[in-house]
């Protein structure tokens, strides 16, 4: 399993080696979560596709967010389940990492697009329909997928050109970029610089844009005279705000909080890669009356 005599192609993922006594309960737990994630996100995509009341830009973006969550979890959770059932697992980590990076980059840009949609709907409602047309939505979603693809292509090409001639053991259940760079025996300074440069348009700019959008939204909501009107208006973006807070909060904890142990690092990644995709369909379905009504109408048609 080597590229040549000194370059390693496959890596060993240790996974949850310190919780071997819980491997079967954890397997059942993650399998159940995976089934719920797939069911919830596929349900949202199906409702948006079939229901005429869910043809607005907000639900169009939500369907692509659900699609992204399906891709992300399908790339990660089946590997976690496999690792739980085997004591020593090999995996082509660079390919797995590139798929994960693509969905992460896509979701950052898409969350920014969703905040722009909420900004127009609340702060500029008279021009919302003409500004946020179907063509604009397609361009924003297409740009999100394209950004994810370009980020993946750049980092993957540089990772595949790197040599790995030392240890091939990663104390994790996911192929994270950081541990892979530490195992490389090549000069990774250029790759690290590229990752830092790409993080500005992919992570920082969407985050700043989201913050600015919600500042404008908050100021607009405060101008509404009735408390009922303020509550009703802000509730239209509460689900998106909750999703953004969960996504950026866990990501910040993973990459910013220093001196993390392996157990804490894995726990944070479980929250980021498993709980967040589970959380999205829950908050968008349980807290959204239009989705609940569309689901009830679908059940009535089936009956």
Automatic annotation (TrEMBL):
Transmembrane segments: 31-50, 136-153, 194-222, 234-257, 269-286
Recorded coiled-coil stretches: none
Keywords of the record: Cell membrane, Disulfide bond, G-protein coupled receptor, Glycoprotein, Membrane, Olfaction, Receptor, Sensory transduction, Transducer, Transmembrane, Transmembrane helix
Xref: Pfam families: 7tm_4
Record membrane topology: Multi-pass membrane protein
Domain of life assignment: Eukaryota
Location(s) in or outside the cell: Cell membrane
Domain G-protein coupled receptors family 1 profile: 40-284
InterPro entries documented for this protein: GPCR_Rhodpsn, GPCR_Rhodpsn_7TM, Olfact_rcpt, Olfactory_GPCR1
PANTHER family: G-PROTEIN COUPLED RECEPTOR, OLFACTORY RECEPTOR-RELATED
Membership in a protein family: Belongs to the G-protein coupled receptor 1 family.
Protein name, UniProt field: Olfactory receptor
Species per Swiss-Prot/TrEMBL record: Staurois parvus
